[in-house]
Amino acid sequence: MAFSVLSSCQLPQFIYFLLVALTTFSVISTAFGERTLKFVTVLYRHGDRSPVKAYPTDPYQESAWPQGFGQLTQDGMRQHFELGQALKERYHGFLSEAYDRHQIAVRSTDFDRTLMSAEANLAGMYPPNGSQVFNPNLKWQPIPVHTVPQDEDRLLSFPLPNCPRFDSLLNETTHTEGFLNVTRLYKVGTPQPLGSEDFLEMLRNKTGLKDASVETVWSVHDTLFCEAMHHLPPPAWVTPEVMEKLRRLKDFSFQIMFGFYKREEKSRLQGEFKFVKETEWEEEEEEGLGSVGVLLNQILKNITDSTVLDSKKLLKMIVYSAHDTTIVALQSALNVFNGKQPPYASCHIFELFQEDNGSFSVAMHFRNDSTKEPYPLALPGCTQYCPLEDFVRLTKSVIPENWEEECQVPSRIRDTEVIIGLTVCGCLLFLLIGLLLALLCRQQDVKDGYRHVINEGDDNS
Ligand SMILES: *[C@@H]1O[C@H](CO)[C@@H](O)[C@H](O)[C@H]1NC(C)=O
Ligand SMILES: *[C@@H]1O[C@H](CO)[C@@H](O)[C@H](O)[C@H]1NC(C)=O
Ligand SMILES: *[C@@H]1O[C@H](CO)[C@@H](O)[C@H](O)[C@H]1NC(C)=O
Ligand SMILES: *[C@@H]1O[C@H](CO)[C@@H](O)[C@H](O)[C@H]1NC(C)=O
Ligand SMILES: *[C@@H]1O[C@H](CO)[C@@H](O)[C@H](O)[C@H]1NC(C)=O
Ligand SMILES: *[C@@H]1O[C@H](CO)[C@@H](O)[C@H](O)[C@H]1NC(C)=O
Q1: Scanning 275, 311, 324, 344, which has the fewest C-beta atoms within 10 Å of its C-beta?
Q2: Helix (H) and strand (E) counts for the chain?
Q3: pLDDT tens digits along 340-377
Q4: Where does the chain cross the membrane (predicted)?
Q5: To test the ligand 2 pocket, which listed residue (162, 167, 171, 174) has its Cβ within 8 A of the most ligand atoms?
Q6: Which of 201, 156, 163, 206 has the alpha carbon at shortest distance from 56?
């Protein structure tokens, strides 16, 4: 009896053990044996910075910061140096130890803090060794970081012309039940039934910002957060509870900007975040974006290129140095955004692999914590190692085919305006000619009187 019980238990156990062993083996063999890394794209946020602005009553105005507003701090430099070292380690054996200009291309937005972040990052990635040492006292070598002027940047921070459809999407967002729920929670503007404190009214009073709202309040958090990071004692009204509320509102404003409502369409269009930018206090630079679909399209194009031109192509890594909004926009477009503002020097990674059968797959990771391994991010509807074709197919919906058309940029209305304008001009010209002709005729009639007037004029001059 006892024996038969035991054996009937042991058999399934043995099969289970076998299955586990087999799966483990197959996982290991695909991970380390047959899957080879081919190409990497990295998009990171700049490191720790001074605040972009101070609110009117802020005791710490621009002079409180060694380099003024919006600048990378030494903490930020260290964060990126560390990220550079981590990337060097992660891609050890993939990238050559020594810097090779054919292998890596770096592009940054045209801001001091993103350019400097990229430089600090590269210092961590490529300390010179051997023949690359040009000054024995310096563990650093110059490596190019490319950029384009802010108003020409169509990739990482687009000042694309306004997209009316996107503006109306944002307006629609502010009328959704979900948005109004949050708004009610913090009592924005309009009189509300008593019960909860009027958080935003308090904020307006304390900061001197007349127009503090759910959409703009993230800046207050940002300023206070930067000050706290640099051990500047906060004013009395900034309690931990207030900071926590601000933090939640800030994360919420990131969500409504890029997702929350009609995410795919927002990703396709993503014009400027207009209702942030219109307010008096908002800085234009932090950090308006154009269509993230264009960026994603470019990333996928470069990835696909690297599968085709494999033998000739030496390029192994593209690096983008950008902003929290760039990461949020990209991750929202991919539907992998976790709802939290990406921390300083956080890094979204795309890796292209070739499987043992020759096919290609894309894996994504997010390094948002330097003490942890990067988090794997799987595209919804796909596996962690997503076949490239599936990746492209699943992201098609966020890539605009014709941005202008989809934005309903009223080009026909503009045409009509031009036609009306021309017609009016034509009519005016016609009238003028008529008037001149009439005058000429009159001149014939009253020649003397007319001449008299002209002579008078001449005498006076
Ligand atoms: C520098 O290069 C030498 C020889 O090429 C190698 O032995 C050494 O480990 C390298 N040092 C570093 C820090 O990479
Ligand atoms: C926003 O939407 C509301 C209702 O959907 C509409 O009444 C309002 O005019 C819109 N505002 C703008 C600026 O488009
Ligand atoms: C709004 O809040 C109410 C009550 O708190 C809740 O029942 C409802 O589900 C919320 N709606 C949305 C869209 O979040
Ligand atoms: C805040 O409210 C108090 C009391 O109502 C008022 O005296 C003060 O001027 C207000 N501050 C600002 C910046 O509006
Ligand atoms: C990525 O692709 C774009 C568009 O095809 C191309 O212009 C660009 O040079 C590529 N980037 C690199 C670093 O090769
Ligand atoms: C980092 O990202 C992961 C995955 O999205 C998320 O679970 C985690 O909370 C994030 N951590 C921080 C510090 O943002």
Answers
A1: 311
A2: 16, 7
A3: 999 999 999 999 999 999 999 999 999 999 999 999 99
A4: 418-441
A5: 171
A6: 206
State how beta strands 36-45 and 317-322 pair. Answer: parallel
Ligand 3 environment, Cβ below 6 A:
177-178, 181
Amino acid at 446: V
Nearest ligand, measured from the Cα of 204: 4
Ligand 6 closest atom vs CA 336: 5
What lines the ligand 4 site, CB under 6 Å? 205, 208
User: Which ligand places an atom closest to the C-alpha of 129?
Assistant: 1
Host domain of residue 202:
172-259
Domains contained in the chain, number: 2
125 vs 122: CA distance, rounded Å: 5
Whether 343 maps to a domain, the answer reads yes
Q: Are residues 146 and 293 in the same domain?
A: yes
- Same domain, residue pair 194 and 226: yes
- Give the number of the atom of ligand 2 that is nearest the alpha carbon of residue 175: 5
Residue 429: inside a domain, yes or no? no
- The pLDDT assigned to 285 comes to 38
Q: Predicted confidence band at 445 (pLDDT cuts at 50, 70, 90)? A: low
Token readout for 221 is: 């958090």
pLDDT at 380 over 60: yes
pLDDT number for residue 140: 97
- Pick the residue whose CA is nearest to atom 11 on ligand 1: 129
Q: Is 31 exposed, middle or buried (0-12, 13-18, 19+ CB in 10 A)?
A: exposed
